[in-house]
Amino acid sequence: MDQRRSELDRNTGTGTSLVTLYGEFTVTSNRKVRCSVTLTERDLVIQRLTSAPVGRNKVLLSLKDCVGCRAYRQDDNADPAAYLAAYFYPLKRRWMSSGVSRQRVEQSFRLAALQDPRANMEEAEKWAHAIRERSTRQQNRRDGVLMSELARPCRMMVLVNPQSGKGQALTLYNNHIQRMLNEAGVIHTLVITERQNHAREMMREADLSQWDALVIMSGDGLLYEVINGLLERSDWEEAIRTPLGILPGGSGNALAASIHYYSGASPVSSEELLVSCGFLLCKGLLSRMDLVSIHLSSSPRLFSFLSLAWGFVADVDIESEKYRHVGAARFTVGTLVRLASLRVYKGRLAYLPAAKNHNDEEDLRNNLTAHCNNHASSMTPAPLLCRPSRDSSCHNTFHNSCHSNNSLKVRRMETTPSRSASKSLPGPPDSLLLPLDQPLPTNWVVVPEEDFVLMLAMYQSHLAEDLLAAPEATLDDDVIHLFYVRAGISRAALLRLFLAMEKGAHLATNCQHLVYTKVRALRLEPYSPKGIITVDGEVVEYGPLQAEVHSGLSRLIAG
Ligand SMILES: Nc1ncnc2c1ncn2[C@@H]1O[C@H](COP(=O)(O)OP(=O)(O)OP(=O)(O)O)[C@@H](O)[C@H]1O
């Protein structure tokens, strides 16, 4: 057998990876087919024991792609055999396409070396345990925590909005997710949302000790409800630490597309995106996710995980609702329709630039007071522009007003309605914002233009499944990726921008009207009396608003 092991190692290319278990079993579907099964630290290698050449009869599956493994007996008491089933979702080339996507592979074996059913079952359980343990060890953890280390077995509440997207979320759950979660040994309860705000109300009241994770299968709107519901609780600090999961069931599915993108896999859509996100959910790697608090002029503060939009993007998002039957393509259709009636949105936009590193940030905070009475332009960092040389002029026209009070900290404590309001409202306090009706702090940049085509603040990479708006974004980079397009852009140039955005190439188009900068907070004061502002794709009160990023406030099961 030793000779066979080393031969296998050579043949499989596992090289130095240690053979930890070896056995010879029959395959479950055909008892006449025997195979040798080798478990190394990294792979499961299955080789049919026939006289045919080795390559054709050998399967090598990486344990990185394994979501679970189980040992079981069949109902037949006369059968002493135990069974072993392992579930993999490796990346495979798509039929007739150059892309790859995760596709399900099940390997199951019959173990009947002994007459004693218990002994066979013990052997099968030993294998199942070893496969599960090694596939957990193969996770590329970076800074993440594994769900399996927090809770075992893991209990998830899966919230499905049956109306989301094309109205197929429940079917998609039945066809893919239920099975995947069972394969991963995740105990889950399906909750079907009945109406708008149902999830939000549930989150306010839920006994969260019952759940190790809350999974949303819908568009982004349902997650928005869940996050805001959690942050409305008096125990919000604990509640918002509940691990969240996202499965695409809507037509936009921006967060689902973002976590797929962060996993490094090539772009996919529809059911392939669902399988990818289901895989990431089963693997259970937990990461922190930034949230952004948003103050509106009269509505209570709310929290956002994805985007804030005004102008063209917000209009397209809302106007394209009527095309949701075409799925993700609704944004393309909506963009074309809106382009025909392209308009200018008037308003004032200002932001607090993100410090390039931690020391810069300390300096920014420490120097707020010292700089307050200076001319503001002297301390304003330049935004990252598509054409930096051309746009550097905008900082000369900076027109912030300054407070005479020389301690910003004291001023905030005394006068910030948002802060005093947030004392009574749950959720973390905002440390960068002054009240909306007060002038901006001096270290903010005011955009000199007042005519815009759009303003888009992103905190994750994707605006929709096929719109990679902020390619540099990561889950918890503590940054708002702010884009705006100045008025004067032609329809053709704007269309080119959105077409390029499908691949995240819009920043490379050298569009002189597009500005991109990373910020920690922003304020928007639309001048036009009517319009649309969206937060995570949901319409919010139209009027002045401001926003601040809260680093890693929530936790998301992502890759
Ligand atoms: N059973 C239901 N009937 C009607 N609306 C519901 C139901 N359950 C949830 N909702 C509401 O539907 C709204 C839209 O949900 P969501 O954004 O998740 O899906 P979607 O709009 O189809 O997705 P996308 O934004 O990607 O197009 C949410 O505000 C949610 O409150």
TrEMBL record:
Gene3D superfamilies linked: 2.60.200.40, Probable inorganic polyphosphate/atp-NAD kinase, domain 1 (3.40.50.10330)
Family annotation (InterPro entries): ATP-NAD_kinase_N, Diacylglycerol_kinase_cat_dom, Lipid_Phosphate_FormReg, NAD/diacylglycerol_kinase_sf
Residue segments, region Disordered: 408-428
Keywords of the record: ATP-binding, Kinase, Membrane, Nucleotide-binding, Transferase
Pfam families noted in UniProt: DAGK_cat (PF00781)
Stored PANTHER family: SPHINGOSINE KINASE (PTHR12358), SPHINGOSINE KINASE 1 (PTHR12358:SF47)
Protein name (record): sphingosine kinase
Protein species of origin: Parambassis ranga (Indian glassy fish)
